[in-house]
C-alpha cells in the first residue's frame, strides 16, 4: 500500500458539509474506486455462493452425479478464493480511505489554523479545536471507509433480487418490497439521531474547552481556593453531557436493534415462503437451500446499508464542525502589493504614541496590563493598527516578513515535547555555547544542571515536569536564541522570584546588545536596568525617560510601580 499523500491537496470546499465530503472523495478517487470495486466483488461472490450450493444439491446430490458435484464443488472453492482475495484488498483500501480522509482533514485544519494565526483563539474555544482532532476526523474517515461496503451492499441486493425474481416471482417481490420498507424504517431514525448527535457534539466541545481552561489555570485556582468551585461546575456540565449522550444513545441503540430485528424478520419470511414453495413442488430442494442461503446472506447488505446511513450522518455532522474552523477568515488581510520592510528604523505605534528606538532596551509600564498586551499585539501585527517600521506601514508588508523581523513572546507560549536542545533552538542553528549563553541570560542554568541528560533531556508535553518559573525562563531563553531584530516580551519575569528576576534584569540588556528590545513590566528591577522607560496610562504614552527620573517626576508612574496610592 502506498504511503499517505503529504502534498498540499488544495483548498477544501467550505460551502457545505456535503461539498466538503465530496472534496475529500475527489482527492481519494483512485482508492475509493478500488475499494468499491473489491467490495462489490467480495460481496457479489458471497451472493453467488448460495446459488452454487443449490446447483450442487440439485445437479449432483439429488441425481447422484459425481462429476457434476465435483464441478460445482470446484466452483464453490474458486468463489471462496476470489472472495478471500477481494476481501483483503477491500479492507486495505477501506483502511487507507479512512486514514487518508482523517489525515487530510487534520492537514486542512492545521494549515488553516496556521493561516488564521492569532485569530483562531479569539474566534473559537480551544476545546472545539481539540474535539475536532479527538473525534470528528475519525467520523469523517468512517464516512469514506463505508463507501466500499455500502456500494457492495447495493449491488449485491440488486443481484439477489434479480436471481430470486428469476426463480420465483413471489420471493423476488418479497425482497424487492422488503428492502425499501427496512430503509424507510431506518431513515425515520436518522433525522432525530442527527439532531441529538449535533447537540451532543456542541456540549462535548464546550466541556473540553472548560477542561482545558481549568488545567491551564489550576495553580491559580488552588492559590485562590477556587478549585472546588470549578470542579463542581465541571461536574455539573459533565452530567449534562452524559445526559445528552444518553439521549443520542437511545436513538442509536434503537437503530442498532432495528438493524438486527428487520433482517431477522426478513430471513424468517423468505425461509417460510421458500419452504411452502418447496412443499408445493414449485421449487427444487436445492433451490430451497439457495433461498435460505440468500435470506441469510441478505442480513449483511441490509445491516451494511443501515450502518452506511449512520456513518454518513455522523460524518456529515463532523464535517460541519470542521467547516466552522475552515470558514473563519484572518483578521489581518494580506496586502495586495507587498512592500519590503527596511533593515533599520524606529518601530512606531501611532495609536498609543509609542516609539521604539533602534538598538535600545525599552521597558513599557502600563497602569493596566491589558493595555500593554494590546500594544504588543499591534506592534507584532497580531491585530490591526497603524504601526510603522522606518516609516513603512506593517500592513504593507507580508505577514511572513513581519514575523521574521518582529518576534512577540508572551506567557501563552508553550513548551513542546522533544529534546531540550530542539525545544530551545528549533532551527538547529545555535551552538552549545550560544544555547548556554541564552540559558545564563534567562537565569536558567540550574534548570539545565538538574537534568541528567543536559541539553539532550526529553521535555514532556507542555514542559509539565518544570515549575511555572522554570517554564518561563526556558521560554525566555528560546526567545533570546531566536535573535530577532526586534524582540517584544510581555511580562517575561512574572513567575520568578525577586532574586532570579534581578539576575535576569542585569543580563538581558547585554544579551540583546545592539538590537531593539521591548519588555512590558511594572517590576522596578527591570525598569531600573532599562535604557529607556515608557509609561502608558489609559492606552496612551504620557511620560518617558529614565526609571529614576519618572519616579521622581511622575506621580502616576510612581503609584503604578511602587503599588502605592499616594497619587
TrEMBL record:
InterPro entries: ABC1_TM_dom, ABC1_TM_sf, ABC_transporter-like_ATP-bd, ABC_transporter-like_CS, P-loop_NTPase, Type_1_exporter. Residues 326-563 form the ABC transporter domain. GO terms for molecular function: ABC-type oligopeptide transporter activity; ATP binding; ATP hydrolysis activity. It is a multi-pass membrane protein. Keywords: Membrane, Transmembrane, Transmembrane helix. The keyword Ligase does not apply. It is found in: Cell membrane. Residues 34-314 form the ABC transmembrane type-1 domain. It comes from the Bacteria. SUPFAM superfamilies: ABC transporter transmembrane region, P-loop containing nucleoside triphosphate hydrolases. Gene3D superfamilies: ABC transporter type 1, transmembrane domain, P-loop containing nucleotide triphosphate hydrolases. One of its GO terms (cellular component) is plasma membrane. The chain crosses the membrane at residues 34-57, 69-89, 146-165, 171-190. This is ABC transporter. The lineage of its organism: Bacteria, Bacillati, Actinomycetota, Actinomycetes, Micromonosporales.
